[in-house]
Every structure is written in structure tokens, then in C-alpha cells.
Known about the structure:
Helix content is 31%, strand content 21%. By secondary structure, the protein is α+β, with helices and mostly antiparallel strands. It has 4 domains: 19-188, no CATH class; 193-337, Cathepsin B, Chain A, CATH 3.90.70; 348-499, Jelly Rolls; 509-547 and 610-724, EF-hand (Recoverin, domain 1, Orthogonal Bundle), CATH 1.10.238.10.
Amino acid sequence: MKLGETHPSSSGTASCQDFKEIRSQCLADGKLFEDPEFPATNRSLYYKERPRNRLKWLRPKEICENPQLFVEGYSRFDVQQGVLGDCWLMAAVANLTLHRNLFYQVVPNDQSFDEDYAGIFHFRIWQYGRWVDVVIDDRLPTYRGNLYFLHSTERNEFWGALLEKAYAKLHGSYEALQGGLIHEAMVDFSGGVTEKYLMTSLPDNFFTILLKAYERNSLLGCSIKADPNTRTAKTPAGLIRGHAYSVTRVTYVDFKKRGRADKIPLLRLRNPWGNEDEWNGAWSDKSPEWQFIPKSEREELGLTFSDDGEFWMSFEDFVSNFDRVEICNLNPDSFNLEECPEGCTKKWEMSVFEGKWIKDISAGGCSQYPDTFWKNPRYTVTLKDPDTDDDMNECTIIVSLMQKNRRSQLHQGLGLLAIGFDIYRLPDHENVPLQFNSIIYENCVGCTENFNHEREVSQRYKLEPGSYVIVPSTYSPNLEAEFLLRVFSEMSNNMTENDEDVYMSDLDDRVKNMSLNPEPADPIRDLFDRLAGADGEVDWQELKEILDYAMKEEIAMRHGVNAWGEDPQEQNCLKQLLCSLCTTIYKKIGIAKLWELMQQEPLQQEQVLLNQPQLRELEGEGFPEKVCKRMIAMLDKDASGSLGFKEFKSLWIDLRQWRAVFRLYDTEGHGAIPQKHLRDALHSAGYTVNAHVLNVLAHRHGSRYGIRFAEFIVCLVRLKTKIGETTIRYK
């Protein structure tokens, strides 16, 4: 990753910004940095809803004296939510402060308001498989001289406000952060994989899951859903509905009362508002339960009682009062084992693939659409070894599917899609690519419980060793998006795309029958000889003239064999049809009316012929320059930039066959192949491709109208050239 690189979809036009280069230039010029990619204007604040107050952008040195990035280090208490409804982000930022290695990964310590200050800062945020360095200037939205959004308890501390601005830039505006789920930000600050649990359907060992997650440096968050039937957001127990909290500690405590000793499961939580709105039940601040905990243990817990938004509660009360828990399991590259808590000696094994759902190509919808489901991308994951401590000899895996860049497209009206996945056991004898049939469907071993409109959906499974196929999809077909698929396992796993190899296959028999004479007609040979001259070769311009002539000849030559070598059988059928039509009209209206119709001015012959579907492949200026140049490059073995007649003859055979394929799949007669038929059309032309190659071809050469003839020829030229460069099959 280059420092300053912004994610390409964050704004659509963002350029690469190098933090060190920009800072050095600003220092040399004696200027403070002003970010052109995220200016101090209203468009960086909102895309739809205007702020209630008139805001002013100020630099920290204009807000207070002696601004600092950190005041006496950093802690979860530095995070105070502002006017923006991004409590989900605040909860994740508070969690981030508990993990030193992660914190300095996100907030680099090579910047300050003192040495080399130039009004520029940078933060690293994980985005869909890579760490992105986001560069910002330090102008912040204020109201009456105070920070309007995230702020610290210390007026002159700014790391939190600047991090929030970097996150807003990544998503296009501050308003884009309005409303979200904790796990989104936890993933962006760690690169981890999340699990989500609803309190209505918890596993029996849920506290153990929480405890192990905490011991393995996982990030934890929870929330209470809003109640539409009540005006007040605050519950009698002091908790806030529709609000997100950080889980900052999970532990057992020794409880000794009247000679009885128990271990009580407790959790420590924090409200990102950082005020007096705290839990007021058992184990809350100054509750009587704490007097039965040994003093040494209270000190070890760092127990304090103040209106700071942090509080303790029992696991039982936690389950009763909250609705949702989110766990972010850390990417194995996110931390070092030496920095983990005592007893943490393992990391997850991870496999990652990126993909796309493209309309009519690879966006097949969920399994409820069996006619198109097979079009979805597919991935084979092989699990060889069971978990070391598993009595059932099974393997633990967590499958995560994430849709990319949707939050940054909210201003375009593009929200989150409903996404999910299915998992199928692959029979030992089954070869790739997987063919969906009743046997495969019966081997479904797991699927997303619900297709949710969330950025990431994930599920934990216990599976027997073996090979499995994961099929990610949107709920409905033909919805386009990019995605990231990750598989975490305790033991090693191997994941590959479950798809075709790319190779030359047999030509479709129907095409063989449609392309008859392999020799160019005499007029074409004569034109080639005339243009080639003494050297016997034609360049791209002369090739274009020959091919354009051949197309026009098809219109002009209505008798005998035309320039493309096609016989007149079609013309004979047309004559028979016209005779039959005239006879029918004569019987209906009589000879006088028929003669009157025949006296009307007829259409020009060329106009009639051009309106016939089979002659609409090329429009305007004939064969485009890029097509002619690519065709020459495909056959130009001596790199002369021209073709001899032997090479031209080989091209002629290809073009006639490819043109026959095009006509076969231009089913509507509109001069274009529907994208949903592109894979079949390529196969008929003798080329088998995988989903990745198909997606690339459709993206580069398709349009809303499908694949035009010239672009179809380019596809085939690229395939023939590429496959001709190597003797191996590749995925």
C-alpha cells in the first residue's frame, strides 16, 4: 500500500495522496494543507440533510491554545459523541483504545501539532482486504468555537475528532456516518471478521464465547433496539434504547457472602456519550454487591465510580437488557502473539477472495432462483484437519461475506443489498466446476439464516473434514455489487475458485453448418491483391477497407454467392414468400387495388436490406480502428504491422465463424448479444472461460444494450491471442 492511497470508491474521483510528500511540500512552501478531496464545505458535511446550526471550520490552533494529538496518552474516556448519530462508530473507537497494537496501526504516531506541523494528518483504515492510508487536513466543524462532532474530555486533545474526519472522508461525508452497526467500524479498525448474536437465540455457552473472544483480543460491542412505541429513549434501568455500547471487559469475579463463595460472570460496558447515563441495577456504580468482592480483586479490576459512562453488570442482566452482541475476531495479521493477553497462543487461519456480482453474468440471486443461482461465483474450501480440542473430530470455520463500498454510495441512492451464502458438501468424486443438481442441493450443510441488508454477514459452523463449495449471492438476481469473501478456521484451510479453466474447446456444430465456404470470394481476393501492392501485405487501414467492402457487398449482391461465401438459398425462400404474399393480397383486395399499391414509391433497396436484423452488426464507419489493429496483432507473427494473404485467409475463417456465432445469439435482431448469453456465445465460438474472465469481458466490452458485434470480435481476438500465448490452462 502506498502511503496516502485512498480507496478508489470513496468518492469516485479521489487521487493518490502521499502524506509525507504533501507534508514536506507544505513545510517547504510555508503553507498549511487544505485537502481538495474533502474540502471544508457543506458537501463534506452532508449530502441530503442540512445541519441544524451554522457551522464554521476551524483548525485546532484556532479552537484552543496548545492543541495536542494526545493528552497524557489515550484511553476510552477520550471518546465523547457529538451531535452526529454515529454512536456505533464511537463504541468501536472506544474499543480500539484497549488494543495498543491496533491503535497505533490506525493512528500513526509520526504526526503532531509541534514538530513538522503543516495542518496535515493521516490515519490507516482497513478496507475490503487492505489497509488504506487516509490523508486529511485538520480543519474541523465547530459551533460557537466548540467541536460539533466527536470530541475529547480534554478540550485540547484532537486524535478522536481527526480520526472521525478521516472516516467521514472515506465514506464521502459526515452524514454518511449517520446510523450504522458497531461491527462495521470494528472491522475497519482491525480487518477482523464479525459474529452477531441476538439475545433471543443464544447458544448455551455464550458467556464462554464472550470470555474466549475477550481473551483473544477480539473487539466486542452491544446494542439495544429502539422502541417505536415510546417517546423516551432512556429505560428505567438507565440504559439508552437505539444506542450502541462498547464491551470493555469480560471476567468472573469471586463473590463471598455469608460464608458462601461463588464465581459471578460480569461484563464492563461503556456508553460513548461518556456521561451519567449508566446502568443503575445490580453491580452498577456504588451498588452493594461490590462490598462482597475482595479488595485486591476490586483493585485488579480498576474499579472506579464516576459519571464517565462506564459501568459493570451481571451476565444475566446483560442478556435481559440488551438485544444484540457483535464480536470482531481479529485478522491473524492484526496482532503479534507476544502482545496478546496471557494464555493467548493461537491465531485464526484465513483465506480471502474478492469478487463481483454482474447483471446477467454472475448475479444469479439466492437458491430460490434455481434457473440463475448457478451463475453466482463459487469457491471451494478444503478442511483437512479437525480442531485440536474437538471431541467430535470436526472443524470450526467462520464464513464472512462483505459487500464493498456501499456506504460511500448512499448519496447516489445505492443502499446495502440483502446478501448471504450457501455451503454445499462436495462429493469426493465430483470434479470442478460444480454442476448444480438435485444431489448437490441435498448436500447443503449450511446457509445464511436471513439475507440481511448489512455490509457483512457471517456465520460460525462445525463441519467434518472434507471439501465444501461456498456460493455467495444477493437475495434477488441481477443486483450488482463487489464483495469480499473470507473464511477463518482454527486449522489450516485451502480455498480456490470453483470454476472452469480457460481453454480452447470445440466449435459449435451449428456454427460449422452456418459458415460454409472457407475461401474469400473473388472480389475480396481481387481487392486484397490491389491494396497489398508489391509487398503482398495489408496494414490495418487496408484491412478495414477490405472488411468494410465485404459488408457492403452483402447488401449489394443479392444473387449468387456473396462476398462472405454464403449461397442464395435465403434469397429463394424470400422470393417464394413474396409470391405467396402477393397471391393472398390479390384474393383479398383485387387486381385494381394491388396495382395501386405497387405504384407507390418503394423504399430504397439498401434501406430495406439494412433494416434486416442480420445486416445490423456494424454501424456507421464499419470496422473500428481498434478492432482492425487487434486482428492484425493477433496474426502478425513477424511484428511487421501488416498481414499477408495466408494470414488474412486465417482471419477470414475466424471472422466468418465469429459472425455466425453472433447471429446465432443475437436473438432479438438488435445488433447485440444479451450479456446473459455471452458465456454460451464464447463457448459456441470455441472458447471456454471462467467467471473472472467473463466478468472482465462483460465489464470492458458490454453496455446496457449488450455486446455489439465489433466488441464481440474484440473479445474473441483477446481470447485467441491470450490462449495462444500459453500452453497451460489457467484460472
